[in-house]
C-alpha cells in the first residue's frame, strides 16, 4: 500500500529533477522545423576532439566538411584523388545518423592552378576543362552516391553587384559552366539534392543576380533543390527584414533555403569589404582584437539577442528552410579567429571555447519555443 502511494511521487520528482538539470538539445528543439548542422574539421570527424564530438553527437543531425571535399584536398594532382579524409567524414556521418552534405564541387578558391592549365602550363580550352570538370564531379559525387545526400555544386559564382564573377571557370567555359556542373552532379547521383551556395545574398543586387541564375538553371530543367545562404553574419547585418525578404524571394522560385555557414562576427570590422572573401588578410592590431581576455557581458547578451532575432526568422520561414548549419562547433576552432585577421579571439558560435553553451544557445532554443504551438 505504502509503495503504491509513493510510486507516482517518485516518478514525478525524478522527471522534474532530470528535466530541470538536462540541457535542451538543438536538433530536438527544431525537430519538424529544420535540420541543425555543423561544419566539421578533420579532428572532429576523426573523433580526435572528444569535447567537440560530444557536442556534435548530442546537438546536430547534419554535417558539412569544412575543407576535405574541396578540390585542392580531394583531387590535389591531375591523376590522384585523396579520399582518406572524406571517407572518414562520411563514415562519421553514417555512424551518428546525420544528413551528410558535400561541400563543394566547383569554386574559384581552394582549387589548384593546374585545374585550369594544360601539361605545358597553357590555359586550358573550354572542352578540356569541361571534360576535367565532369571527370572530377563524376568521381567525387559517384564515390559517395546515396551516402552524401546534398551537394554544394557551385560556390560563390557572383560578384557583389549581382554580375557573374570572372573566375577561371567563367573565363574558360563561359556562363554555362554552372549548368554543366549541375548536369554532371545530377548524372553522378540522380537522387542527391543539388545546391547553389553564396554569401551576402541578403544584399539586393547580389540576391537579384542569384535569383536570375537559379531561374535560368531551372528553366533549363536542372534540378536546383535549394539555395545556400552562407550566413556569415555581423551584429548589424543582415537586418531581420533583409533575411526574411531573402528567404521569401528564393522560396518564391519553388526551391528550399538552407542556411549553410552560420556564424555571427562580434569583432570590429577589419576591412570596408564586409563580405566573406576568404583571400582577405589584414595585419593583427590590438584594436582589432579587443576581447582577447573574454567577451563583456553586454556583448554576450547582444549576441544572444541577435541570434534570437535571426532564428525567429528561420522559425517563421520553417516551411521553406530545410537546414541551418553553423560554420563550426565551438568558438575555439572558428575560422573567424583567423579571418580576415590572423590570431584574433572570436565569439561567433553557440558553444564557448570550453564547449559550454553560451547565452546565445539559450536564446536560440527560446526562439523555437516562442513560436511552437
Ligand atoms: C566560404 C566557403 C567555406 C569556407 C568559408 C570560411 O564561405 O564556402 O567553405 O571556406 O568561406 O571558412
Provide a descriptive summary of the structure in words.
- With 373 residues, the chain is α/β, with parallel strands linked by helices.
- It has 13 helices and nine strands.
- The chain has helices at 2-21, 26-29, 42-45, 50-59, 71-74, 84-95, 126-143, 168-173, 177-188, 204-219, 240-251, 297-316, 359-371; strands spanning 35-40, 62-65, 99-106, 150-155, 193-198, 226-229, 232-234, 256-265, 321-326.
- An eight-stranded parallel barrel has the order 1-2-3-4-5-6-8-9, surrounded by five helices.
- Strand 5 (193-198), helix 10 (204-219) and strand 6 form a beta-alpha-beta unit.
- Helix 7 (126-143) runs parallel beside helix 9 (177-188) and helix 12 (297-316) packs parallel to helix 13.
- The two termini are 40 Å apart.
- The relative contact order is 0.11.
- Alpha-D-galactopyranose is lined by residues 103, 155, 199, 230, 261, 276, 278, 335.
What is the global morphology?
Answer: globular
Q: Which structural class do you get from the secondary structure elements?
A: alpha/beta
Uncertain regions spanning at least 5 consecutive residues: 7-20
State mean pLDDT (0 to 100 scale): 93
Order of helices and strands: HHEHHEHHEHEHHEHEEHEHEH
Q: Provide the spatial order of strands within the biggest beta sheet.
A: 1-2-3-4-5-6-8-9
Oligomer: single chain
Radius of gyration: 22 Å
Termini Cα gap: 40 Å
Number of strands: 9
Strand content: 5-15%
Molecules bound to protein: alpha-D-galactopyranose
User: Describe the biggest sheet?
Assistant: 8 strands, parallel, barrel
- Overall helicity: 40-55%
